[in-house]
From TrEMBL:
Coiled-coil portions: none
Occurrences of domain PTS EIIB type-2 (ranges): 3-100
Domain of life: Bacteria
E.C. numbers: 2.7.1.-
PROSITE patterns per the UniProt record, alphabetical: PTS_EIIB_TYPE_2 (PS51099)
Presence of keyword Transmembrane helix: no
UniProt keyword annotations, A-Z: Sugar transport, Transferase, Transport
High-level lineage: Bacteria, Bacillati, Bacillota, Bacilli, Lactobacillales
Organism of derivation: Carnobacterium maltaromaticum (Carnobacterium piscicola)
InterPro entries: PTS_EIIB-like_sf, PTS_EIIB_2, PTS_EIIB_2/3
Protein name: PTS sugar transporter subunit IIB
One term of GO molecular function: protein-N(PI)-phosphohistidine-sugar phosphotransferase activity
Classification via Pfam families: PTS_IIB
């Protein structure tokens, strides 16, 4: 499986890019070398097979969650990276998934 964290929002431009950049910055601060990419939700089913961690903005469809489960890809809420509420706990779980 590829080692890549993907962040998906509706367009793959605004919110997902903001969250991806926040996660990248935190990884850099913590010395974690792990690819992070913003993607649009319309292409999520094509993106999942090349991912190892999935961070969502809007609640994904059940088909997306089922596919992530089939691929053993952990799924995390991304909104805490915008609000700051609960961000540290989710970030710690993401870091655990990177194996660092």
């Amino acid at each position: 499986m590829a080692k890549k964290l993907i962040v998906a929002c509706g367009s793959g431009v605004a919110t997902s890019t903001t969250i991806a950049e926040k996660i990248k910055a935190k990884f850099e601060d913590d010395g974690i070398d792990y690819p992070v990419e913003a993607v649009d939700y319309k292409s999520i089913m094509n993106e999942l097979p090349s991912a190892s961690i999935y961070v969502y903005i809007a609640q994904p469809d059940i088909e997306v969650l089922d596919r992530a489960a089939e691929l053993n890809i952990p799924v995390f809420a991304g909104i805490p990276f915008l609000t700051g509420m609960g961000m540290d706990a989710i970030y710690a779980e993401i870091v655990e998934e990177t194996g660092k």
